[in-house]
Design brief:
The complex is a heterodimer of chains A (about 120) and B (about 400). Chain A is of the alpha+beta class and about 120 residues long. Chain A has a domain of about 80 residues: 2-Layer Sandwich (Alpha-Beta Plaits). Chain A has two helices and six strands, in the order βαββββαβ. In chain A, the strands form two sheets. In chain A, strands 2-5-1-6 form a four-stranded antiparallel sheet, covered by helices on one side. The radius of gyration of chain A is 16 Å and the shape is globular. Chain B has three domains: about 100 residues, no CATH class; about 130 residues, no CATH class; about 80 residues, Alpha Horseshoe (Serine Threonine Protein Phosphatase 5, Tetratricopeptide repeat), CATH 1.25.40. With about 400 residues, chain B is mainly alpha-helical. In chain B, about 70% of the residues lie in helices and about 0% in strands. In chain B, α5 runs antiparallel to α6, α9 packs parallel to α11 and α14 packs antiparallel against α15. Classes of the chains: A alpha+beta (about 120), B mainly alpha (about 400). At the A-B interface, α1 of A face α14 and α15 of B.
Chain lengths: ~120, ~400
């Protein structure tokens, strides 16, 4: 069994949501992760809040947030176990981030660290 | 009559105390000597009390006899005296000076240290529970065999092998050091959790024995709570979990000994005192920054003490299961999570999730699907219950499922 990273991409990280929307989105995300964990396929997750984020550029220029010139931002990533990339894709399809038009979930196999990949 | 009742009761509590203190004194390699001396003490009691009546303070009598027997043993057994007495005290003591400390404090300390010794990671979980029941709870071999639904011979073999292991690993009877305590405590909590579950879910028909198992698990967990070093948030969380579960003892079975499902239980039979005790310890568990699966399970158990079927209740339970599965997957948690999902969201969503669970050899899986399809597709519901019936292993489970099928 391989491990895959599901990377959640938002088209526009600068968008703000109402507290109610945020709460509904949190629940959907928790239910999505819980569903993967219930299949014993969840490995770990890292949320990446937009607040207080910085971008470091060439020549040590630092700007606020991953917004502005960058069109896409990463909202978070989770790691799952899957028998095939197809299974990992099925997990990704359930991600609530995909309800937003232009958003995407990138599926990437994680290197095993055995030097063989 | 009075005596016949008194002795087993005393045996349970005092056997374990005397054994722990003697074993601590002699070292784990002489665990059988400690057990034998404790047994002989009770044999003396049985012989003497039958003729002379029960002494005014039976416990003090037992301790006195145990002390004398231990001293005699040390004196009689030269090898033992040379080998062990030197280790007990620095320098060679006069034989009469050997002090056998049966004070409350030393009893508690010895029992706690024995608990850590018994829960040594090199011993299988089953054997740890068996040893704990024997050494720390004073259960008889036949009682342990009954609880595990097996025979005395199997238990004797299991305990013998476990004691051999303790000897060969030279396990010390002591408090783990500051650095090791969290790891050791983890193993101890797992054993206590399993000991409690053994009682709570055991198929043994002996209800009193099963409840005793749970109470012993709670008593040992309480020993950890009362000790400053081990009174940690996850210990409180485990104790809270035990209280919430134990609060439903009286409501779980009908007069024929059949299990009553949670929804059908008479909540006036739930033990309010245990529920408040659980809530108190859950509160203590949330102080500090320690977090464990016991916190989540205690939270889930707490919400189950509220009978009313509210959206808030099931939403909270669902989220607790979502988190529990992330840190400690188990098929039971996966199935319960899916049930909570059906209550918090809806049955259709839960069916879709249930069908992704790869648990087709588990009869609870089909019972769950039967429940979820009920009212949506009764034909399918019945099929699932029938599938569950064919997989069920115990009489109780078959009875419960048959009742469901009979509804159609």
């Amino acid at each position: 069994m391989d491990e895959y990273a599901l990377i959640m991409r938002h088209e526009d990280g600068g968008k703000t949501a109402s507290p109610e929307q945020m709460q509904a989105w949190m629940k959907q995300t928790m239910d999505w992760i819980g569903g993967i964990a219930a299949q014993n396929k969840f490995v770990g997750g890292t949320g990446l809040p937009f607040d207080g984020s910085k971008v470091v550029w060439h020549n040590n220029v630092v700007t606020n947030g991953p917004f502005g010139d960058i069109k896409e931002t990463i909202g978070g990533l989770i790691t799952v176990k899957a028998d095939s990339v197809e299974e990992a894709i099925e997990f990704a399809k359930g991600c609530p981030v995909l309800q937003g038009e232009g958003n995407s979930v990138e599926v990437r196999k994680i290197a095993k660290g055995d030097g063989a990949h | 009559m009075q005596q016949q009742e008194l002795i087993p009761h005393l045996f349970r509590t005092e056997f374990s105390k005397i054994t722990a203190v003697l074993c601590k004194l002699f070292g784990i390699e002489h665990i059988e000597v400690a057990e034998d001396l404790a047994s002989e003490t009770f044999l003396s009691a049985l012989e003497t009390w039958t003729y002379k009546g029960i002494p005014e303070n039976p416990t003090a009598w037992l301790y006195m006899v145990a002390k004398n027997k231990a001293k005699n043993y040390l004196i009689r057994n030269n090898l033992f005296t040379n080998k062990i007495a030197t280790e007990i005290k620095s320098g060679l003591p006069g034989k009469e000076e050997i002090e056998i400390d049966l004070s409350d404090k030393n009893i508690t300390d010895s029992q706690l240290q024995m608990l850590f010794a018994v829960c040594h990671p090199t011993i299988s979980a089953e054997a740890q529970i068996g040893l704990a029941l024997r050494i720390l709870c004073g259960f008889g071999i036949d009682e342990i065999a009954n609880a595990f639904l097996t025979n005395k011979e199997t238990i004797n073999k299991r305990l013998f092998r476990a004691k051999e292991k303790l000897r060969s690993e030279k396990v010390a009877i002591e408090f783990p050091g500051e650095a090791a305590i969290n790891n050791c405590l983890e193993t101890v909590l797992t054993t206590l959790y399993l000991l409690f579950s053994e009682g709570y879910y055991s198929e043994s028909n002996d209800t009193i024995l099963r409840e005793d198992l749970c109470h012993e698990a709670m008593r040992l967990t309480n020993l950890l709570i009362e000790n400053e070093q081990t009174s940690q948030p996850n210990v409180h969380a485990l104790f809270a979990l035990m209280c919430f579960h134990a609060s439903r003892f009286a409501a779980r079975k009908n007069e024929h000994g059949e299990f009553i499902l949670y929804h059908d239980q008479d909540e006036t039979l739930w033990n309010e005192e245990l529920i408040s005790k659980g809530a108190y310890h859950l509160h203590l568990a949330s102080q500090g920054n320690m977090f464990s699966k016991y916190h989540l399970e205690a939270g889930i158990a707490y919400w189950h003490t509220i009978k009313a079927d509210t959206k808030e209740k099931w939403e909270t339970i669902l989220q607790l299961y979502n988190r529990l599965l992330q840190i400690a997957y188990s098929p039971v948690a996966a199935l319960n999570r899916t049930y909570a999902l059906s209550k918090a969201n809806n049955k259709k969503a839960a069916i879709a999730e249930a069908e992704k669970l790869n648990l087709k050899d588990n009869h609870f899986y089909f019972t769950l699907l039967g429940e979820l399809y009920t009212g949506i597709d009764n034909q399918k519901a019945k099929q699932h219950f029938e599938e569950a019936l064919s997989l069920a292993k115990t009489q109780t489970d078959r009875q419960t499922i048959q009742k469901k099928i009979d509804q159609y």
